[in-house]
Design a protein that fits this description.
Length: 489
C-alpha cells in the first residue's frame, strides 16, 4: 500500500497516529496540519513551511491544470518543482471551485490522470460538495455523484498514488454515516470529510461535531480522517477529540493578507495590538509596532509565519494532551474562549457512547474545570462497569462515614456524578476526579442513575442510600424498595 496508518495512542476519539506515505518516503505524526500552498501566490517558501512544523502540504491540482504556464511546468518538472516542498503533497481536484462557482472544466478521469502525471502523493476525485441545510433529496443525488467519482478513481491505473475518499452528506448525520460506510467500501487510502467550511465560517461547531461523528461511525475506527478546510487553531482540539487526524488550512495566509493575527482564542487585527502575546520566532524578533511599520510584503509574510507557528504549536499541545490523557480538559479550556465552541463541546459530550468506545480506559487522573465534565465518557463507563462488582446482602451507599451505622455487608461511597463507588476505588482513576465543589442537581441525578443501575444488577440485595440533604427532585428516580436516609436530620 502507498499509504498506511497506525494508531499509537487514543484519548476520547482523538488519537496520535503514524501516517506513512511510501511515495515520499515519509512518516507523518498525526494529528497534523497541511498548509495550503497556492501555486499562483506563495506567501512563504517551503523551507519556512518546514521550519514552522509542516511535514506535508496540500495544493490545488485544478488551479495548476487550468493555468497553462503552471500546467506545462508541472508536467515537465513535476509537482514538487511547483510547490518547492520535499515532503508528501496532497492535491485537491477542484471540488472547492465547484462548490463555489457551480461548475468546473474537468472530470474525475482527467484530474486523476493529471494528478498522477505530475507526481501527486495523495490525489482527490471530483466529488460534489453539498452545502449545509440542503434537502435530503438533493443530498442523496449529490452523494451518488461522489460515490461514482470515488469508485471510478479507485478503478483507474495510477501507480502508487494514494486516493482520497471524500465523505459528503450536508448536515444530515444519517447521510454522512451512509457516505462514510460507502467510501470505506471502496478501500481508499485516506478519507476526507468535506463541505464543513460553511459551518466553520458560521461558527456552527455543534453541527460540525455531529457531521464528524456521523462520518466516523460510517468509516469505522481504523482509517485516517482528514477534515477539509478546517484551518483555525481555536477549533483543532474539538475536532481532534471528535476523531479527525488531518486538517488543511489556507487561513494562515489569507488572514495574514488581511493583517490578521491568529491565536488559539480567536483572531486579532495587527493594527489593534500593542503587544504580540506569543513566543514564536516572529513575535520574538518583532514588536507589534515594528511589524505594523514593515513593508506590506514583510508584514504579510511574517504574519503568515506566525499564524503557522501558532497552529502547529496547538497541534503539539493536543498531542501532548492525548499522551497525558487529558485531551477533553484541553477542549474544555478552549471551549471557554468562544460561546460557539462551548456549544460544540457540549454536543461532543452528547455523543458519550461514541466517545467511550474510542477512549482508553486507564489514565492518570480526571480534572474537570467545568460542569460539562460530568458528562464525560469516564462517568458513563464507570456507571456501566461498576455493576459487575459483587456486593453483599445489605448494601449502604453513602455520602457519610462507612464506619457508622454497622449492619451492612457492603459500604460504597456516593459520589456525584459517578454514583456508587467502591471504597477501594475512590482514590483511583476516574473516581479520583477533581471536580467543582457542591454538586448540581443534574450531577446528583446522574449519581442516582448509577445507583439504580447497581440496584438493577443485584436484585437479591437490599440497598440503603444515605445523602446530605439532596432535594426530592434529585432523588426522584430512586425506587421505593431502596431505603433512604437523610444525614442532615
Amino acid at each position: 500500500m502507498t499509504l498506511t496508518f497506525e494508531t499509537r495512542l487514543q484519548d476520547a476519539a482523538g488519537r496520535i497516529g503514524r501516517l506513512a506515505v511510501s511515495t515520499a518516503d515519509s512518516v507523518i505524526q498525526t494529528p497534523t496540519l497541511l498548509p495550503v500552498v497556492n501555486p499562483n501566490i506563495q506567501t512563504i517558501d517551503a523551507t519556512e513551511l518546514s521550519s514552522a512544523g509542516a511535514e506535508m502540504v496540500i495544493t490545488n491540482a485544478y488551479i495548476i491544470y487550468t493555468t497553462p504556464s503552471l500546467r506545462e511546468r508541472a508536467l515537465g518538472e513535476g509537482l514538487r518543482s511547483i510547490v518547492g516542498f520535499d515532503g508528501p503533497i496532497m492535491t485537491d481536484s477542484g471540488s472547492f471551485q465547484l462548490a463555489t462557482y457551480g461548475n468546473i472544466d474537468v472530470d474525475t478521469t482527467e484530474i486523476i490522470e493529471f494528478q498522477s502525471a505530475i507526481g501527486t502523493d495523495i490525489a482527490t476525485p471530483v466529488d460534489l460538495p453539498t452545502a449545509p441545510d440542503a434537502s435530503v433529496a438533493q443530498t442523496e443525488d449529490d452523494l451518488r455523484h461522489t460515490d461514482d467519482a470515488i469508485e471510478h478513481a479507485m478503478s483507474m491505473e495510477t501507480g502508487e498514488m494514494a486516493i482520497t475518499g471524500p465523505v459528503q452528506g450536508s448536515t444530515h448525520p444519517a447521510l454522512r454515516r451512509r457516505a462514510g460506510a460507502a467510501a470505506r467500501e471502496h478501500a481508499c487510502d485516506l478519507y476526507a470529510i468535506g463541505a464543513v467550511v460553511p459551518l466553520l465560517n458560521s461558527y456552527r461547531y455543534a453541527e460540525m461535531v455531529d457531521v464528524i461523528v456521523a462520518a466516523k461511525e460510517g468509516l469505522g475506527p481504523a482509517v485516517p480522517v482528514h477534515l477539509f478546510g478546517a484551518g483555525h487553531p481555536m477549533m483543532f482540539a474539538l475536532a481532534v477529540a471528535a476523531g479527525c487526524d488531518l486538517f488543511d488550512s489556507a487561513a494562515y495566509a489569507l488572514y495574514a493578507r488581511d493583517g490578521r493575527y491568529l491565536t488559539v482564542a480567536g483572531t486579532a487585527h495587527l493594527d489593534d495590538m500593542d503587544t504580540l502575546p506569543c513566543e514564536c520566532p516572529v513575535c520574538v524578533d518583532y514588536t507589534s509596532a515594528t511589524l505594523q511599520m514593515a513593508t506590506p510584503e514583510v508584514r504579510e509574510r511574517q504574519l503568515a509565519l506566525h499564524n503557522l507557528y501558532v497552529s502547529f504549536a496547538e497541534l503539539r499541545r493536543i498531542r501532548a494532551a492525548i499522551t497525558a490523557g487529558n485531551l477533553l480538559e484541553l477542549v474544555e479550556q478552549r471551549a471557554r474562549g468562544h460561546p460557539a465552541l462551548l456549544d460544540g463541546y457540549r454536543r461532543l459530550l452528547a455523543h458519550t457512547e461514541y466517545l467511550e468506545r474510542h477512549d482508553r480506559a486507564s489514565k492518570g487522573g480526571f480534572f474537570g474545570v467545568s460542569r460539562e465534565a460530568a458528562n464525560r465518557p469516564e462517568v458513563y463507563r464507570h456507571q456501566r462497569r461498576v455493576t459487575a462488582v459483587p456486593v453483599g446482602r445489605e448494601v449502604l451507599i453513602t455520602e457519610g462515614d462507612c464506619g457508622a451505622g454497622g449492619g451492612y455487608d457492603t459500604c460504597w461511597r456516593l459520589m456525584p456524578p459517578f454514583g456508587p463507588v467502591p471504597m477501594a476505588l475512590q482514590d483511583s482513576y476516574p473516581t479520583n476526579a477533581t471536580l467543582p465543589q457542591d454538586a448540581t442537581e443534574a450531577e446528583r441525578r446522574m449519581a442516582v442513575e448509577g445507583v439504580m443501575r447497581l440496584v438493577g444488577a443485584h436484585p437479591s440485595s437490599r440497598f440503603t442510600v444515605a445523602h446530605r440533604g439532596w432535594p426530592p427532585s434529585a432523588l426522584a428516580a430512586i425506587s421505593s424498595d431502596v431505603a433512604m436516609v437523610d444525614l442532615t436530620d
